[in-house]
């Protein structure tokens, strides 16, 4: 009787077989997926490199904060005793460089082994993203070299100083807008929007010779600006889709993988066509000093296609409009919270204006305290918080104790720029905004030591920094020469980083009170 009962329970009935098979199949698939996701977890152990234990899927990212903070948590845990640690960005093993002198090696002295960033991997489909594909950041090899050198030649100090009237005109428009706004009693201004309208306006003039009307009113939404914000947002999503799909890269085709939006490709292509028509119709509309003029000459010399021209123009636009605007409004933000620095800077500015109330190009570039304030802002909130490099030629990193760490072709090395900038060993009281720390300091020396890398370093270093400084400094001069900036109820306290933006920055709106001097 008991046997009979047991038999009933243990022997699978005919109907249970499919259930069991399904169970076994699911368990096998689960086991294989688990194995696939974790089989390489001993990568660093085998090399004798320490690092935090990864979690399935996110690796050592928490998925809850800005990636800069994730890298920073790891950095702080290991900085006392280690020069390099092993970690996982989702499923991807990465060498995290803790010692800045090794960062210099990766970016500069051993560049031949680390020629590429992850740009080429971010760009999933060149055909689907034809304009983004022309940005140096997404390129490698000879193509990268050519595009980079073509763009850089249009942005030299000489070229920018010849085009400086564009900046003068745009700062005048910024001044008028601020006057109109404060005259009607609205002295509390959302400064992110204000400054991005300014950098956008300059880009319109410098790259396409067109007036984008972003500085006509703060109350009116501007279609061009909205398209550009969507573009920058999409660049962020394009990058993130690369990371999020790392566990199963083939998923990328189903993700939101484009880097530029089709809408912005179309709009800027039309800008370019319109600008060409304007110049062909009326030669007096040609500004021989602007970037469009330079690109048109380049097009003739090298027979560039329309899309190549748009690609060059958009490389300058996308990499230059948001980054420099962000640094400019962060500088204003810190100066608002530090009235003593603001007064000191205003004094310097007012003492160096020309008779017509403007500042000339040469003076703008050499004002010491202005320079210190901008560099301190770059240190406090560097728009780019880390740099990853792809090993392009197997090599070794030699540690101080003589150990040789092999890095194989295809492996990724990450430099936590944000962490170096906030390490008290390199910058005393790193959370304090103190521009004077850069007084009589040779920035290039700090860059060489690997501790000051907001523009990175080496052959792939930011190619637009002169243009960036021009945008940032002109905006600050224009605002401070006429207005005292004050904290109001809506001004955010000292920065928390936004976790949903491409360019690192203060979360949310940035209201500041403008008091006419
Ligand atoms: C203050 C503002 C800016 C900051 C903080 C900044 C920062 C950076 C950083 C960190 C890189 C990465 C370099 C690397 O991979 O090692 C970069 C690359 C680049 N930046 Fe900037 N940038 C700024 C403004 C600009 C402007 C105004 C332009 C306009 C032309 C620009 C154009 C580029 C381009 C084209 C690259 C890719 C270079 C390459 O891969 O060869 N940037 N920038």
Automatic annotation (TrEMBL):
InterPro entries xrefs: Cyt_P450 (IPR001128), Cyt_P450_CS (IPR017972), Cyt_P450_E_grp-I (IPR002401), Cyt_P450_sf (IPR036396), Insect_CytP450_Detox (IPR050476)
Binding site for heme: 462
Keyword Endoplasmic reticulum listed: yes
Pfam families documented for this protein: p450
MF-aspect GO terms: heme binding; iron ion binding; monooxygenase activity; oxidoreductase activity, acting on paired donors, with incorporation or reduction of molecular oxygen
Cellular localisation: Endoplasmic reticulum membrane; Microsome membrane
Alphabetically ordered keywords of this record: Endoplasmic reticulum, Heme, Iron, Membrane, Metal-binding, Microsome, Monooxygenase, Oxidoreductase, Transmembrane, Transmembrane helix
GO cellular component, one term: endoplasmic reticulum membrane
Transmembrane regions listed in the UniProt entry: 16-37
Main location: endoplasmic reticulum
Membrane topology summary: Peripheral membrane protein
Keyword Membrane appears in the UniProt entry: yes
Domain of life, per lineage: Eukaryota
Cofactor section: heme
Role summary: May be involved in the metabolism of insect hormones and in the breakdown of synthetic insecticides.
Similarity annotation: Belongs to the cytochrome P450 family.
PANTHER family the record matches: CYTOCHROME P450, CYTOCHROME P450 28A5-RELATED
Protein name in the entry: Probable cytochrome P450 309a1
Gene: LOC105234040
């Amino acid at each position: 009787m008991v046997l009979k009962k047991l038999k009933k329970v243990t022997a699978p009935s005919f109907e249970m077989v499919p259930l069991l098979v399904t169970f076994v199949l699911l368990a096998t698939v689960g086991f294989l997926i688990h194995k696939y996701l974790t089989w390489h977890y001993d990568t660093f152990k085998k090399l004798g490199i320490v690092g935090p234990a990864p979690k399935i899927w996110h690796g050592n990212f928490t998925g809850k904060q800005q990636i800069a903070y994730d890298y920073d948590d790891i950095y702080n845990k290991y900085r006392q005793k280690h020069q390099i640690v092993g970690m996982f960005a989702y499923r991807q093993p990465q060498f995290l460089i803790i010692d800045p002198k090794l960062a210099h090696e990766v970016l500069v002295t051993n560049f031949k082994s680390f020629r590429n960033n992850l740009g080429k991997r971010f760009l999933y489909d060149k055909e689907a993203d034809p304009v983004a594909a022309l940005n140096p950041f997404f390129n490698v090899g000879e193509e990268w070299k050519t595009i980079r050198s073509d763009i850089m030649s249009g942005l030299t100090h000489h070229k920018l100083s010849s085009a400086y009237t564009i900046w003068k005109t745009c700062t005048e428009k910024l001044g008028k807008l601020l006057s109109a706004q404060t005259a009607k009693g609205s002295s509390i201004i959302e400064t992110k929007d204000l400054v991005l309208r300014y950098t956008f306006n300059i880009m319109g003039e410098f790259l396409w010779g067109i007036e984008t009307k972003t500085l006509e009113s703060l109350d009116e939404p501007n279609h061009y600006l909205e398209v550009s914000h969507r573009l920058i947002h999409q660049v962020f999503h394009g990058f993130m889709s690369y990371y999020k799909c790392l566990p199963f890269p083939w998923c990328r085709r189903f993700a939101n993988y484009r880097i530029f939006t089709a809408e912005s490709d179309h709009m800027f292509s039309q800008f370019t066509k319109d600008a060409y028509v304007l110049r062909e119709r009326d030669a007096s509309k040609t500004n021989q000093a602007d970037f469009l003029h330079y690109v048109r000459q380049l097009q003739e010399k090298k027979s560039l296609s329309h899309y190549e021209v748009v690609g060059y123009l958009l490389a300058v636009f996308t990499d230059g409009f948001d980054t420099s605007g962000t640094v400019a409004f962060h500088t204003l933000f810190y100066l608002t919270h530090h009235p003593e620095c603001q007064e000191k800077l205003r004094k310097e500015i007012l003492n160096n204006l020309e008779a017509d109330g403007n500042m000339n190009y040469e003076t703008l570039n050499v004002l010491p305290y202005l320079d210190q304030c901008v560099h301190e802002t770059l240190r406090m909130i560097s728009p780019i918080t880390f740099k990853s490099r792809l090993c392009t030629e197997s090599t070794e990193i030699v540690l101080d104790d003589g150990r040789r760490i092999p890095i194989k072709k295809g492996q990724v090395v990450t430099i936590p720029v944000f962490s170096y900038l906030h390490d008290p060993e390199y910058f005393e009281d790193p959370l304090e905004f103190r521009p004077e720390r850069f007084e009589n300091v040779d920035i290039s020396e700090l860059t060489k030591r690997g501790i000051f890398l907001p523009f990175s370093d080496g052959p792939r270093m930011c190619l637009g920094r002169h243009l960036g400084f021009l945008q940032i400094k002109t905006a600050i001069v224009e605002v401070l020469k006429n207005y005292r900036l004050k904290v109001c109820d809506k001004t955010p306290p000292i920065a928390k980083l936004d976790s949903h933006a491409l360019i690192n920055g203060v979360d949310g709106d940035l209201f500041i009170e403008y008091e006419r001097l």
